[in-house]
C-alpha cells in the first residue's frame, strides 16, 4: 500500500500552528510576525515528517513550472557532454528545478519541434548550447523566455557562457617559454576558423593568447602548420611536416588534444622522445591527455562549471547580457621540459 504524502496541514499540526503560518515559513515569505521559536518548530516538523512541497500546487501559485530546458545541437552525445549537463543539473537541483534535455543534431526541423515542445511544457527558461564554441543564430521563439547561450555567442543581447580561451592560451604558451623554449611552433593553424566566428571562436582566441604570451616574453612564433581538421591524422601529418624543417621546433603548441596525439605518434616515428627532445602542450583536457605517456600538459575546458553557471543565470532574475568567461585550468603533466642542450 502506497504511503500517504505528507501535507502542509500535517506539518502545521506537528508544529502547533496554523496552516497559513506554516506555509509562510516554508515558502520564505517576508512580513510574517512569527517568533523565531515558531519558525524553528515548523522547520523541525517538516524535516521530521519528510515534507516535500507539492510541485504542481507550487507551479500554480507562482506561475512557474520549476523546469528549465537545455537545447543543444550535438552537445548531448559528445564526450564532454556529461560534465556540462552535470553542472546544469546540479545548479538546477540546488534551486529545486529539473532540466529537460533535447538535442537537435543541427537539423532545423528537429530544432523547431524541440523548441515548440519545450514552450508547450512552459519551461521557465532555456540554456541554448553548442558543441563547439562559435557564433550561432538564436531562434526567435526563444526570445520570449529567459535564454542563456552556452559555449556560444550571437548577435542578440543575451547572457553567454564561454571558456576563457585567450587566457588559457597565454598560460599554455607560458608553460613552455618559462622552461626556456624560444623555437616554438603552433600545430593546427586554420585561418578559416580564425576568420569566421560562425565556424569557431576558439581558434582566434587561442592564437591571440599565444601571440600575446610570446610578445610579452620578447619572442615571436617560429613556425606554424596548417591542418584542415583538428584530429589525430591532422596532428600526425602536421607534426611530421614541422619535424622536416631545417630548424625544427623544440616546443609545439597543439590547438587541441587530438592533434597532440598525432604529434606524439609522429615524434615517436621520427625517433624523438617527449619531453627530452620535444615539449608538447595543448588544449581541452580530453581524457586521453592523462592516458598519454608522458601525460600531456593541457588547458582544461571547464564544461561542468560552464553548465552550472548557465543554469544559474537562467534561474536568476533578468541577468545582464554579455559574456561570462569561465577559467580553463592548466593541467601540468610531464610533456614539458627545458630544451635539449
TrEMBL record:
<dbReference type="Pfam" id="PF00356">
    <property type="entry name" value="LacI"/>
</dbReference>
<keyword id="KW-0804">Transcription</keyword>
<keyword id="KW-0678">Repressor</keyword>
<dbReference type="GO" id="GO:0000976">
    <property type="term" value="F:transcription cis-regulatory region binding"/>
</dbReference>
<protein>
    <submittedName>
        <fullName>LacI family transcriptional regulator</fullName>
    </submittedName>
</protein>
<dbReference type="InterPro" id="IPR010982">
    <property type="entry name" value="Lambda_DNA-bd_dom_sf"/>
</dbReference>
<dbReference type="InterPro" id="IPR028082">
    <property type="entry name" value="Peripla_BP_I"/>
</dbReference>
<keyword id="KW-0238">DNA-binding</keyword>
<keyword id="KW-0805">Transcription regulation</keyword>
<feature type="domain" description="HTH lacI-type">
    <location>
        <begin position="6"/>
        <end position="62"/>
    </location>
</feature>
<dbReference type="Pfam" id="PF13377">
    <property type="entry name" value="Peripla_BP_3"/>
</dbReference>
<dbReference type="GO" id="GO:0003700">
    <property type="term" value="F:DNA-binding transcription factor activity"/>
</dbReference>
<dbReference type="InterPro" id="IPR046335">
    <property type="entry name" value="LacI/GalR-like_sensor"/>
</dbReference>
<dbReference type="InterPro" id="IPR000843">
    <property type="entry name" value="HTH_LacI"/>
</dbReference>
Amino acid at each position: 500500500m502506497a504511503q500517504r504524502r505528507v501535507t502542509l496541514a500535517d506539518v502545521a499540526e506537528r508544529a502547533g500552528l496554523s496552516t497559513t503560518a506554516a506555509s509562510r515559513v516554508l515558502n520564505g515569505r517576508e512580513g510574517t510576525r512569527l517568533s523565531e521559536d515558531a519558525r524553528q518548530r515548523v522547520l523541525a516538523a517538516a524535516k521530521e515528517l519528510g515534507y516535500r512541497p507539492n510541485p504542481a500546487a507550487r507551479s500554480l501559485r507562482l506561475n512557474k513550472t520549476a523546469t528549465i530546458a537545455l537545447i543543444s545541437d550535438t552537445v548531448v552525445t559528445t564526450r564532454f557532454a556529461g560534465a556540462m549537463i552535470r553542472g546544469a543539473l546540479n545548479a538546477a537541483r540546488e534551486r529545486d528545478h529539473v532540466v529537460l534535455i533535447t538535442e537537435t543534431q543541427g537539423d532545423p526541423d528537429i530544432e523547431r519541434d524541440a523548441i515548440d515542445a519545450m514552450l508547450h511544457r512552459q519551461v521557465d527558461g532555456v540554456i541554448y548550447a553548442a558543441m563547439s564554441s562559435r557564433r550561432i543564430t538564436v531562434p526567435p521563439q526563444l526570445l520570449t523566455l529567459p535564454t542563456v547561450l552556452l559555449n556560444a555567442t550571437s548577435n542578440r543581447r543575451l547572457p553567454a557562457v564561454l571558456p576563457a580561451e585567450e587566457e588559457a592560451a597565454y598560460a599554455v604558451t607560458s608553460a613552455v617559454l618559462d622552461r626556456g623554449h624560444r623555437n616554438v611552433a603552433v600545430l593546427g593553424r586554420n585561418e578559416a576558423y580564425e576568420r569566421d566566428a560562425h565556424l569557431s571562436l576558439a581558434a582566434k582566441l587561442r592564437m591571440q593568447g599565444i601571440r600575446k604570451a610570446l610578445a610579452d616574453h620578447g619572442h615571436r612564433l617560429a613556425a606554424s602548420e596548417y591542418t584542415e581538421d583538428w584530429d589525430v591524422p591532422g596532428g600526425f601529418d602536421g607534426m611530421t611536416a614541422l619535424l622536416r624543417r631545417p630548424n625544427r621546433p623544440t616546443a609545439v603548441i597543439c590547438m587541441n588534444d587530438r592533434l597532440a596525439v598525432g604529434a606524439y605518434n609522429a615524434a615517436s616515428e621520427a625517433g624523438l622522445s617527449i619531453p627530452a627532445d620535444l615539449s608538447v602542450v595543448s588544449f581541452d583536457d580530453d581524457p586521453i591527455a592523462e592516458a598519454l605517456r608522458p601525460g600531456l600538459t593541457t588547458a582544461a575546458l571547464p564544461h561542468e562549471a560552464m553548465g552550472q553557471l548557465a543554469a544559474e543565470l537562467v534561474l536568476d532574475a533578468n541577468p545582464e547580457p554579455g559574456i561570462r568567461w569561465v577559467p580553463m585550468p592548466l593541467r601540468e603533466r610531464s610533456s614539458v621540459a627545458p630544451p635539449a642542450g
